[in-house]
Amino acid sequence: MDRLQAMQVFTRVVDSNSFSRAADALDMPRASVSTTIQNLEAFLGVRLLQRTTRRLNLTPDGAAYYERCVRILADLDETEALFHEGSKKPRGRLRVDMPPSIGRLMLIPALGEFRERYPDIELVIGMGDKPVDLIQEGVDCVLRVGTLQDSSLVARRIGVFQGVTCASAAYLERHGEPQTLDDLQNHTAVNYFSSRTGRVLDMDFMVNGQACEIKIPSTIAVNDAEAYLSCGVDGYGLIQPPRFMALPYLRSGQLKEVLPQWKPQPMPISAVYPHSRHLSSKVRVFVEWVAEMFERCPLLQGQDETALHCLPTTAPAGSIRSKLAVPVVIDASEMVI
User: Fold this and answer.
1) CA triple 186-317-260, angle to 5 deg
2) At 256, is the pLDDT very low, low, confident or very high (cuts 50, 70, 90)?
3) Is 333 helix (H, G, I), strand (E, B) or coil?
4) Residue 336 reports pLDDT greater than 70
5) In terms of Cα–Cα distance, which of 126, 10, 9 is closest to 59?
6) Per-residue pLDDT for 272 more than 70?
7) In this structure, what are the phi and psi dihedrals at residue 154, rounded to the nearest 5 degrees?
8) Which residue in 1, 111, 131, 140 is deepest, having the highest Cβ count within 10 Å?
9) Which residue pairs, CB below 8 angstroms and at least 24 apart, start in 6-9?
10) Domain check: are 145 and 281 in the same one?
11) Range scoring the smallest mean pLDDT among 114-123, 200-209, 246-255, 293-302
12) Domain HTH lysR-type, which positions (predicted)?
């Protein structure tokens, strides 16, 4: 049995969730694909796939084997690319993960530029805020907001996440505009809770250079950034969304900034990837491109909204659309931030 070919067949079956589609993609008879998987399971001594009439499901052993196969095949592609004629252009699969707010509003609309520069890179884009084990899950690079906790990873700062305290005009008409931080106890907030921990994130303000968290009464809590923003626009309470997401509503007057003298604590936005003696060219060009994209937007560099061409200016939450040039795979299983 050709183990390398068996790995390629197995990963293609999993990716397409079909023996028939895998056979078509590999230009093989369906019977050969089935036989390859059976021989691979016999060789390994484990069941990799649970087959039903409607779909295929990975067994726990199958899931672990799949992740390792993906990494091995990606490493092989990368090695071959080093010696392939014309290998100056990076190629192969690149798996990245990021918060949906950044993915939908920043990265997805700009994908055409990346695809034009690097047509031989296959992007696999996951969007979520849950912890990702880059090594175990075979993820090449993640974009994250906040301080890096894992010292075994490399973080390159590419931007600054600046929040804004605001509320809808309708809410402020009913409850008045807070003038001091003490006034917040007479107001209602929309709470945001972490998908990772379930903890409600209190509003925070910079007071005399120090971060100050304030708990505000609330009747609604969500764990999705667009839902959070929508609740604020609909008048359910004060919110502290990212300024780059709130900007269209601030400009239209649907939201109004309050307490501007006490801004939320800014947080770094970083591209994070594993330590490596030889950084993959795919990861390197992706990080360089993302950093360049963020640099073009002063709003995401801690500055005021002076170059708004980098962001949508009149779009309600959830309406961002873009054409995705294949091969691009969007993993929407964790769209929660």
Assistant:
1) 40
2) very high
3) coil
4) no
5) 10
6) yes
7) -105, 130
8) 140
9) 6/36, 6/37, 6/39, 6/40, 6/43, 7/69, 7/72, 7/73, 8/73, 9/33, 9/36, 9/37, 9/40
10) yes
11) 293-302
12) 1-59
What is the number of domains present in the chain? 3
* Alpha helices for the chain (secondary structure H): 3-16, 19-26, 30-44, 60-83, 100-102, 111-117, 169-175, 225-233, 243-252, 281-295
CATH number at residue 174: 3.40.190.10
Question: What Cα–Cα distance (Å) separates residue 195 from each residue in 31, 128, 189, 233?
Answer: 43, 9, 19, 22
Of the chain, the percentage scoring pLDDT greater than 90 comes to 45
In this structure, are 173 and 242 located in the same domain?
A: yes
Neighbours of 83 (CB within 10 A): 7
Per the DSSP assignment, residues forming a β-bridge with 272 are 142, 155
If asked whether residues 152 and 186 sit together in one domain, one would say no
The C-alpha atoms of residue 23 and residue 283 are separated, in whole angstroms, by: 30
- Residue 80 CA to residue 269 CA, distance in Å, equals 33
State percent of the chain over pLDDT 70. 82
* Residues 50 and 177 placed together within one structural domain of the fold: no
The two three-digit tokens of residue 280, written as one number:
């993959």
d(CA 157, CA 27): 44
Q: Could you tell me the two tokens for 253? A: 């007057």
| pTM passes above 0.85 | no
pLDDT tens track for 285-333? 999 999 999 888 877 776 655 444 455 444 444 433 333 333 334 333 3
Tokens of 297: 């937007």
